[in-house]
Backbone:
DNA sequence: CGTCGAATTGATGTCATTCAACTACAGTGG
DNA sequence: CCACTGTAGTTGAATGACATCAATTCGACG
C-alpha cells in the first residue's frame, strides 16, 4: 500500500494539474498514545495512513463493551467503512503514531482520479482489505476461540507483540478470560 | 451496481477501442438450481453478476460443515475475494439463475480501465461490499444469535423468504436448531 | 515501594451445540 | 391417487464452550 505522500511525489513528477489541492489535502499528524481520532456518530470521516505506530478501530456496544474491528500498524490504511456518512467506529492510537490524513471526500475526488494512480493501485488496497475481511468472517462463523487465536498469531505475529492480550480477545470476539484459558489448554 | 452488459452498452456508445475484447469477455449463463460454479481450491476465479435468481458462496470446514459466506440475489456481484488465486469459496446456485460472468483477469484488465467507468463506479461496488462486511463482522463479534437474526431480517427481508432457514443459520454462524429455538423464544 | 491495569485462575451460569426423536411436507415412482 | 423417501423444521435432554463475577498474582512504571 502506497502512502499519500508517495502518491504526491509521483503526481509532482507528472505535473498533475491539481497538485496544490492535492498537497493541501494531506495532513501529517503526530498522535500521542490514547488519542481519539474519531467517534461513533461523527459525521466527518477520514482515511488514516499509518507511517509509524499503531491505530485501531472499534465499536462500543449497548453494554459499554469495546469490540475491536481492526488494528492498523505501519503501512496500513484505516477508515470507517460505513456508507452513510456517520461513523460506526471509534479510531484511536494504541501507540504514539505518525499518520497521513485525508478526508474521504478529498480521497475520492482528488486521489482516486489521479492518472498516476493506476487501476491496480486503485483496486489493491480495497482488495487487500476485502480479502482480510473475508478471512475474518470465515473464522468468525466457522472456528472456535483457539482456532481464531492461532490463525491470528500466524497472520499478525507482530501485532501480538505490541498490543495487550485483552485487545486480541476483543478482536477475536471472546473475553480476555476465555483467551487466557484456551491458551493454557493447548499445553495440557 | 451496474451489470457488465450495461457497462458494455456505454462502451459501445463511446466507441471504446477494445470493444470486441470487452464483449467477448462477458458470458451470459443460465444456471440450474444446485449447479456448482466454482470450488474451494480452484484456480480460475470469476465474477458473477446476478441478473435473476440467487447464488451463494460458502466454505466447507474440516468436519464437512457448510458455512455460508454470502447470498447474491438479483443485482449483486459475487466472487471469491481471496488474494492468491486459489479460491477459498464454493459458489453455487440456490435457484435457477441468470448471470453475467467475467474472469477476474478480464475484469481488472478490461473493465476497470474503461474511461466510461468513472471513479465513483469503480469504488462503489467495492465500498458497498466493504460496508456490508464491516457490519457483518461487528455483528459476529458483538451480537447474540437472536440479535444477528433480527439484524439479518431487517437487512435482507427478501432473502429470508427465498432460502431455507438452515442456510440463514449457516450465514449467521449458528446451527439450524439454535435458530429455530431463538425464534420461538421471542414470543414467550 | 506502592499503585494500577493486565493476566490468570476458579466457581458458577448461560447460551449454543450435539444428538436424537418426531412432524410436516414436497417430490418420486408405483 | 397413494405409498415411499428424503429434506426442513421443531423440540427435548445432555454436553460443551464461552461468559460472568470475584479473587489473586504479575508486571510496568512513577
Residues:
Amino acid at each position: 500500500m502506497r502512502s499519500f505522500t508517495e502518491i504526491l511525489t509521483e503526481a509532482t513528477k507528472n505535473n498533475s494539474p491539481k497538485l496544490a489541492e492535492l498537497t493541501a489535502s494531506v495532513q501529517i499528524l503526530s498522535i500521542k498514545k490514547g488519542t481519539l481520532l474519531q467517534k461513533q456518530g461523527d459525521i466527518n470521516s477520514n482515511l488514516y495512513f499509518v507511517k509509524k505506530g499503531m491505530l485501531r478501530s472499534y465499536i462500543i456496544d449497548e453494554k459499554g463493551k469495546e469490540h475491536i474491528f481492526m488494528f492498523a500498524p505501519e503501512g496500513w490504511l484505516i477508515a470507517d467503512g460505513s456508507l452513510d456518512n456517520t461513523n460506526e467506529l471509534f479510531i484511536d492510537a494504541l501507540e504514539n503514531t505518525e499518520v497521513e490524513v485525508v478526508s474521504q471526500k478529498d480521497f475520492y475526488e482528488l486521489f482516486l482520479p489521479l492518472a498516476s494512480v493506476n487501476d491496480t493501485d486503485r483496486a489493491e488496497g480495497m482488495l487487500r482489505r476485502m480479502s482480510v475481511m473475508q478471512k475474518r468472517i470465515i473464522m468468525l462463523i466457522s472456528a472456535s476461540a483457539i482456532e481464531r487465536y492461532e490463525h491470528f498469531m500466524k497472520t499478525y505475529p507482530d501485532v501480538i507483540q505490541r498490543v495487550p492480550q485483552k485487545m486480541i480477545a476483543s478482536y477475536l470476539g471472546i473475553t480476555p478470560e476465555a483467551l487466557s484459558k484456551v491458551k493454557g489448554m493447548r499445553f495440557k
Chain B is about 45% helix and 25% strand. Residues 24 and 39 of chain B are 24 Å apart (CA to CA). Residues 164-166, 176-177, 180-181, 184 of chain B lie near DNA strand D (CB under 10 Å from a C1').
